[in-house]
Amino acid sequence: MIMRAKILLATLCGALSVGILGMPRGAFEAHARPPASQAISIHRFRLDSSQSKFIAHALRGGLLWFKGHEHLVAAREFFGEAQITPDKITPASLQLTVKTDSMVETSDAFTEPQKQIINKELREIVLEPAKYPEIIFKSTEVTGKPLGNGQYDLKIRGDLTLHGVTRRIVIPAKVTVSGNNLRAIGEFSIDRSDFKVKATSAFHGMVRVRNKVKFTFDIVGHRV
Collapsing DSSP states into helix, strand and coil, what is residue 155? Predict the structure, then answer.
């Protein structure tokens, strides 16, 4: 009985071996791979700061002469990459790095001499680019829903590192993918104190703002 079982097992193994080895070259690999229609197609887009806007809106605080004037601090230089899987959304990700010393006052409420004073305070007291040269966001999770025609309603969760402090935030975004281009529009807010960012009292004290700072963005990316 034992001998018969061994013979049966050997015969079965031999048949399987012949079946596999007898396949045309590449047939086994093709059989193991999922059909092309099931393959995941992740689209990658490199962010283009020259066609984008990333602005910090800081509402004026205190009782100085320009009470009520909002600071509009724009990031002139940033880079990064967005990834999205058409129709399914995930896998998806976002990485964004802003050069701190590229952030400047752009509000028309201030004269050019006033902007120079504000930018000096931003560099030397508020953002301190010599110590903290980059502001970095890295996503940890992207969720949402496709709206059709290449449009998506997303929530991008991730870690924001600002002024040497890292906090988890959520960024809502409306994303449109058209051909080789991606466009993301949205806004989010942070508490300045969570990141130990100061409002100045030195120099002319012109950067004196409330704790809540809103960021708006209209970012364009090109497919890699």
Answer: strand
State the pLDDT at residue 204.
Answer: 59
pLDDT, residue 202, reads 53
Residues 70 and 15 in one domain: no
- What's the CATH code of the domain at 115? 2.40.128.110
Residue 119 · residue 130 · CB < 8 Å: no
Distances in Å between the Cα of 63 and the Cα atoms of 67, 110, 115, 152, 213 are 6, 16, 19, 43, 18
Cβ-based neighbours of 172, under 8 Å, separated by 6 or more: 154, 155, 156, 186, 187, 188
**Residue numbers of the chain with a pLDDT score lower than 70:** 1-39, 60-68, 201-205
Domain span at residue 128 reads 41-223
Distance CA 181, CA 96 (A): 17
pLDDT for position 207 = 76
* Total number of domains constituting the chain: 2
Token pair 């935030």 is found at 169
Angstrom distances, CA of residue 107 to CA of 76, 177, 213: 14, 31, 15
Per-residue pLDDT at 39:
63
CB 222 within 8 A of CB 181: yes
CA nearest neighbour of 115 among 75, 76, 73: 73
> Is the overall model pTM greater than 0.90, yes or no?
no
The answer on 117 and 27 residing in a single domain is no
pLDDT at 8: 43
H or E element in which residue 16 lies: helix 2-21
